[in-house]
Amino acid sequence: QDVANHITRPDIIALSGPGVKVLAGFVVEDPLLDVAREQKHQPDRIRVETIPGMGTVKVRWIVQGNGEITVTAESVKGGRDELRVR
Question: How many domains does the chain have?
Fold first, then answer.
């Protein structure tokens, strides 16, 4: 009901890094057919309706630059987790 009635905010998957600029962000809707939906506003912070418990959501970014990046997943019910990549 939260998603249907927009009671809570969407889940956020973000990419950040000091030497990295995010050019585009996508939510992968069908990985087998390589179908993805672009999020044009704030591509570094991808909003998804919900991340299913015990499920996955696939996202894709096009970035410029180099250096360490941090990918953060944040959910009202699921909490926050982050991964640093060099």
Answer: 1
